[in-house]
Amino acid sequence: MPTHDYVPHAPGYVDNDGPKIVTSRFVHEDSHTLERYEATNGFEGLRRALDRTPADVHEEVRDAVVLGRGGAGFPAGVKWGFMPPGKFPYYLVVNGDESEPGTYKDRLLMERDPHQLIEGCLITCYALGLSQCFLYVRGEMPAAQENLAQALNEAYAKGYVGKNIMGTEFSVDITLTWGAGAYIVGEETALIESLEGNRGMPRLKPPFFPAAIGLYGQPTIVNNVETLSNLPWLLVNGSEQYKAFGSEASPGSRMVAVSGHVNRPGVYEIEQGVTTFRDLFYGDNFCRGIRNDNKLKMFVPGGGSAPWFFPEQLDLPLEGRTVGAEGSMP
After folding, report:
1. Domain boundaries defined on the chain
2. R_g of the chain computed on alpha carbons
3. Rounded distance, CA 258 to CA 280, Å?
4. 291-298: long-range contacts at Cβ-Cβ below 8 A with a sequence spacing of 24 or more?
5. For the segment 287-302, what is each residue's pLDDT rounded down to a tens digit?
6. 207-242 pLDDT, tens per residue?
7. N or C of the chain: less Cβ packing under 10 Å?
8. pLDDT of 187-205, one tens digit each?
9. Handedness of CA 42, 89, 149, 223 (dihedral sign)
10. Within 13 Å, how many C-alpha atoms sit on residue 145's CB side?
11. Rounded Cα distance, 241 and 237, in Å
12. 329 CB neighbour count, 10 Å cutoff
């Protein structure tokens, strides 16, 4: 039954006292511009990466235990190691097809700090010896598409993308592709099918693990937008500082979109494995309780297919392993 209560629209990012690994520029109105990015240490992570060997950069990411932020939570550095040697070309595909109901943290990263994502793509390509990256953005995200396209034009014009980046022999091209809104294309092999111009349907695994047989039949790494957005900060500050946030099993931060009957819905950057659901829903630094002082009955800890949680699970930390052990997924 309708209550005729006012239901606020979920706003965007909500600033708080938590870590600022991927959201430090969100407080600036011009955070999407190259001028702001360069003024706030932008592309410094790439500079430092280029002063090291690709193997060193790969090891830094592996040592930091940068978990995938797209749902599965698989360590990016380990995933990168699945690329078979000698089967060129290799490709990087960035999954920006954020399609789970109520989830819009990747959209905010693409809208508000597109250069950070571009830098993360470049660091990944350098670490893996890649020269071609495909960035796939969901069709219903016009602002993200526009800001990414403008950012990529700026990056090409300043020599951050393209031939001989920063005066080195490192060269990368980044291609933007817009999706058409199919939910299933959020799955990595369905996304690859769509990139190839086919109907977006998942492939059988095995044998079609992307790292072995991916885009155009070549070895392909598929990473999430937020995953790669962590890399510029990591390369500047190092894996030890990165692991100072979060838990031992789930270091760093993660972005969480909260919608529904809370007093302050929005996207928060929290510490992985440390912040609990109770902290998130009731903490003064986060959602500040249930609207109209109602009692919490249930919540969905992840996407639309995630099994529900109840008040008994409020004290679980937001961590893939812990939530999975309770029968759901973040």
Report:
1. 39-242
2. 19
3. 9
4. 291/5, 291/261, 291/262, 291/263, 292/5, 292/261, 294/261
5. 999 999 999 999 999 9
6. 999 999 999 999 999 999 999 999 999 999 999 999
7. N
8. 999 999 999 999 999 999 9
9. negative
10. 13
11. 6
12. 16
